[in-house]
Write a structure and sequence with these properties.
Layout (H helix, E strand, L loop, with lengths): L4 H14 L1 H12 L5 E5 L5 H5 L6 E6 L2 H13 L5 E5 L5 H7 L2 E7 L4 H8 L3 E8 L4 H4 L8 H10 L36 H9 L7 E5 L2 E6 L2 E6 L17 E5 H11 L14 E7 L2 E7 L3 E8 L9 E6 H11 L5 E7 L2 E6 L2 E6 L18 E6 H11 L10 E7 L2 E8 L3 E8 L1 E4 L4 E6 H11 L3 E6 L6 E5 L5 E6 L6
Parallel strand pairs: 1-2, 1-4, 2-3, 4-5
Antiparallel strand pairs: 6-7, 7-8, 9-14, 10-11, 10-13, 11-12, 12-25, 14-15, 15-16, 17-21, 17-23, 18-19, 18-22, 19-20, 23-24, 24-25
Helix pairs in contact: 10-11, 12-13
């Protein structure tokens, strides 16, 4: 997770020291008329939108980090700001897009791949998308894979999207440190504290100076005029951290590991079904890392070719969904590498200064390879964004139904998407596609939600969907195959 206590302190100090957000506020006011609406994706501490709260009619801040949003909401309440709301969500979430609706302006900064964000957000704004970017960030900020200004301009030029560049020289960097230590240790010791209470106390401390003092089995916490006494536990009784051999280890770029989780974890089974399917199966053989998730109705598989140094390594693990989701929040906006240590019934995920140990799901994951069809009687290629939006619109008439069923009818160069609900009515939309058929037409009924989830996970400009039969599973893939990813979906029998 990017936001921790040290980074929050640094960010607030850097903002005050450089006057960066004050300067950006003035520049945005020059570009945007007063009284419009704003969405800030990846808002973090929300310094910039807070400074603009009296300028916009309403503001929505979106971030995946609950801790930083709690701080932001406290500041919103403290400053009595009525038109600023927050949403805790992954910015790639399709459900998030449904909640927000259209807004006048979208603000993006410190994001990763421009293609992913444009794919998800392009239709949300009605007037402007504001992208704040500094080319030096690529080498000094937490996400080394961020697009530069040149990358963004090329992306926009290729798609004939009009834009303007406003160049400024506002610096947002770390101010010079003084001689004060962040932490002063007067006496060494150790104690076990209830995490939830302890974190909440630190988070809501009235001042930046916090003092800890141990008294018998209690820890006394001073901050300003507040004082807390927390009952602790004997640290000697705390279980020792497992020792795992470094021989059984694997390194992945954090961005790659994050993508793998995002592209698979949504296909895991809900709780109280088959426990074996509540996790993602990671297998390594012949330098190929394969991540597979399925809930028996759909499947997602992502493969990554590793370096030669991993040629002899093999494993087959099932990592729980909750553990992967939690760990993803730590690495989603980060760079560097994730090191994975695996042995017997557990793994250890090591990232920057965080060590996360996970008990694996025991059992044999089903052989899913045989489920993926290789022969097809129909296929079509479509623009991902156009296809997603069409399915999303047609699903408006099917969401009230239990199965959210839509029908796809493929003919030469054309795709018809339709739905009907007994108590609502019906909807139909046509798209021009590049299709291949054995017969004159092909039709199939599917879950609209499953289809949108698959397209969102692939995050490619174009997708190809291949059908082997009207009652057999079909696959969704990126058309350019720039990543080895397959989404498999079972159709819905309507008779």
């Amino acid at each position: 997770m990017f936001w921790n206590e040290d980074r929050i302190k640094w960010y607030l100090l850097a903002s005050e020291y450089t006057g960066y957000h004050d300067n950006m506020t003035l520049e945005i006011k020059k570009i945007i008329p007063k009284g419009e609406s704003l969405i800030d994706f990846g808002c973090g501490l929300g310094i910039l939108p807070m400074k603009l709260s009296d300028y916009f009619s309403d503001i929505i801040g979106v971030d995946y980090d609950e801790q930083v949003l709690d701080l932001l909401e406290d500041n919103i309440a403290k400053n009595k700001i009525k038109n600023f709301k927050t949403i805790c969500s992954n910015c790639y979430s399709g459900e998030l897009l449904e909640k927000i609706g259209e807004k006048d302006n979208i603000l993006l900064s410190h994001f990763g791949d421009i293609e992913d964000y444009f794919y998800n957000f392009f239709d949300l704004f009605t007037k402007r998308m504001i992208i704040i970017r500094n080319d030096v960030e690529k080498s000094i900020v937490h996400n080394s894979n961020k697009n530069t200004i040149q990358d963004i301009c090329k992306f926009l030029d290729d798609r004939k999207i009009p834009y303007k560049i406003y160049r400024q020289t506002f610096e947002f960097g770390q101010p010079l440190k003084d001689d004060k230590e962040v932490i002063t240790i007067e006496d060494e010791g150790q104690v076990v504290l209830p995490s939830r209470n302890f974190i909440e106390i630190i988070r809501k401390a009235p001042t930046n100076l916090i003092e800890f003092e141990s008294t018998d089995s209690f820890i006394k916490i001073h901050s300003g005029k507040s004082e807390f006494n927390i009952k602790g536990y004997d640290a000697m009784e705390y279980p020792e951290f497992p020792v795992i051999s470094r021989e059984n280890s694997l390194k992945l770029e954090a961005t790659v590991f994050n993508d793998i989780i995002r592209e698979t974890v949504f296909c895991t089974a809900p709780n109280d079904q088959r426990p074996i399917l509540e996790g993602v199966n990671f297998s390594l053989k012949n330098k190929i890392l394969t991540a597979t998730a399925t809930d028996s109705y759909r499947l997602s598989r992502r493969q990554v070719v590793l370096n030669d140094e991993d040629a002899e390594k093999e494993f087959n693990l099932i990592i729980p969904r909750k553990a992967l989701t939690y760990f993803q929040r730590m690495i989603e906006t980060g760079g560097d590498e994730v090191e994975i240590f695996y042995e017997n019934n557990r793994i250890v995920l090591y990232y920057q200064n965080v060590v996360y140990t996970v008990l694996l799901i025991s059992g044999n994951y089903p052989n899913t390879e045989k489920l993926i069809p290789t022969m097809f009687e129909c296929s079509f290629t479509a623009n991902s964004r156009e296809f997603y939006n069409a399915v999303d619109r047609i699903s408006l008439m099917s969401r009230e139904d239990k199965d959210d069923i839509i029908k796809l009818v493929v003919t030469e160069g054309n795709l018809e998407i339709s739905s009907q609900a007994k108590d609502l009515g019906s909807a139909v939309e046509e798209l021009q596609v590049n299709s291949k058929l054995e017969d004159d037409s092909f039709e199939i009924s599917v879950s609209g939600k499953y289809l949108k989830d698959a397209v969102s996970a692939i995050a490619s400009e174009e997708i190809v969907i291949k059908f082997s039969g009207e009652l057999t599973a079909f696959i969704v893939q990126p058309s350019d195959y720039h990543r080895d990813i397959i989404e498999l979906i079972l159709p819905v029998r309507t008779y």
